[in-house]
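Researcher: We plan to redesign the surface later, but first we want a full-length starting point. Tokens attached.
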């Protein structure tokens, strides 16, 4: 039976139709570097807001792709961007490999900003996207990336850092247009209290619309069920994860 006939029957019978999830890989470029995004959205005839998803230090793997699907289920277009290059990934628990991928960008914020801006351009060019309604979210290293996107003065509505790194680089900031939400574990060793305090001062001095939700007794990577390394301060928290995603949903509802 064709989809057109099925839709007609469903309409006549009052049958509730389930939304169809569309997922696809999309190549794009930052200069000569080929990158590969994972795009997810529910089948639609109208353009929807875009949410960029910036991955953790291990690359654009399953965790980031599942986040794009979560965003699609919320009614938006999820665009899991690529900071490293097509086919380049780290590995769970491989500190040396992951650091070798992350550090060249973390230590060169101008290059990092250029790389994530390339994703912004590519995401806005997805046909299903309403290019006037864009946000970005990121996990861990990805949180650093989306905060740098905000610091670059990108014309987007909001950014969300999820157990991200707050410390700025040495690149001058532009006027921050995006609203800023940080979802933070209070006991995260990657973002100690002094770094959080400095970030609050920075955002206030910039006149940004910012907020930080700090979850007590919560460490780094608290939304990742695979995080289980208490000695390194990396531990999943079901409670903090639930609270964080509710805060994310509220924020996206506000800005869109």
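Model: Full-length starting sequence:
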């Amino acid at each position: 039976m064709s989809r057109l006939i099925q839709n007609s029957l469903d309409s006549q019978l009052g049958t509730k139709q389930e939304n169809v999830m569309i997922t696809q890989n999309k190549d794009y470029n930052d200069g000569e570097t080929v990158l590969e995004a994972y795009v997810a959205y529910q089948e639609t005839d109208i353009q929807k807001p875009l949410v960029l998803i910036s991955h953790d230090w291990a690359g654009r793997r399953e965790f980031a792709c599942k986040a794009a699907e979560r965003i699609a289920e919320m009614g938006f277009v999820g665009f899991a961007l690529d900071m490293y290059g097509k086919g380049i990934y780290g590995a769970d628990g491989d500190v040396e490999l992951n650091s070798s991928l992350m550090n060249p960008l973390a230590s060169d914020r101008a290059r990092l900003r250029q790389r994530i801006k390339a994703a912004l351009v590519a995401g806005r060019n997805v046909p299903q996207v309403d290019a006037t309604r864009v946000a970005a979210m990121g996990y861990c290293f990805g949180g650093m990336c989306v905060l740098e996107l905000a610091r670059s003065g990108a014309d987007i509505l909001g950014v969300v850092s999820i157990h991200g790194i707050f410390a700025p680089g040495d690149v001058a900031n532009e006027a921050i247009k995006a609203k800023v939400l940080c979802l933070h574990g209070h006991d995260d060793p990657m973002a100690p209290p002094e770094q959080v305090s400095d970030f609050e001062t920075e955002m206030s001095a910039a006149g940004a619309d910012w907020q930080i939700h700090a979850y007590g007794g919560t460490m780094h990577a608290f939304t990742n069920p695979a995080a289980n390394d208490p000695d390194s301060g990396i531990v999943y928290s079901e409670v903090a994860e639930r609270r964080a995603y509710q805060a994310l949903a509220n924020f996206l509802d506000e800005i869109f």
